[in-house]
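Q: what sequence does this backbone want?
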């Protein structure tokens, strides 16, 4: 498993509850106040650790949260997946909610079973579509990943404003 520090284009890798974490939360709060999106990556750690860290983000942004296990939104067909993701982002936008996606690693490897006549090479991949939605979203988005390897694939400018590296000794 790679570490976030191994990915050179990642901004601000911090530990939860550290001074640097609090400083980066200020940047997230400012972006939120200006209706700009902010993507935060939770790397490693347990579900319990993630749930304990979310209130610190919510204190600075919104008190409403929509939580998903990302794999539950991925359908067999591309259009099913895009519809589920669109609904998740649109509903969160209507309620001014923070979006939290647990087990988000799957977005980088998911493939669809579209039949040849339905396949359109001009359509974005699942990950591209997802990050287009993240970039366009005006609230905070938190992605929980187990492996930092996919982060190196994020293009600049990346929507990621902070990577919170948790201690991986916690049991999931």
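A:
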């Amino acid at each position: 498993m790679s570490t976030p520090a191994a990915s050179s284009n990642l901004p601000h890798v911090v530990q939860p509850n550290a001074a640097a974490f609090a400083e980066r939360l200020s940047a997230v709060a400012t972006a939120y106040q200006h209706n700009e999106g902010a993507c935060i990556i939770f790397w490693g750690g347990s579900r319990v650790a993630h749930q304990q860290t979310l209130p610190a983000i919510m204190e600075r942004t919104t008190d409403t949260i929509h939580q998903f296990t990302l794999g539950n939104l991925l359908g067999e067909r591309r259009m099913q997946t895009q519809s589920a993701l669109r609904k998740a982002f649109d509903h969160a936008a209507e309620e001014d909610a923070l979006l939290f996606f647990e087990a988000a690693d799957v977005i980088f490897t998911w493939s669809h079973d579209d039949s040849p006549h339905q396949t359109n090479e001009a359509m974005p991949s699942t990950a591209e579509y997802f990050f287009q939605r993240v970039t366009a979203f005006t609230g905070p988005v938190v992605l929980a990943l187990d492996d930092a390897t996919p982060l190196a694939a994020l293009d600049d400018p990346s929507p990621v404003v902070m990577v919170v590296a948790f201690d991986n000794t916690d049991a999931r």
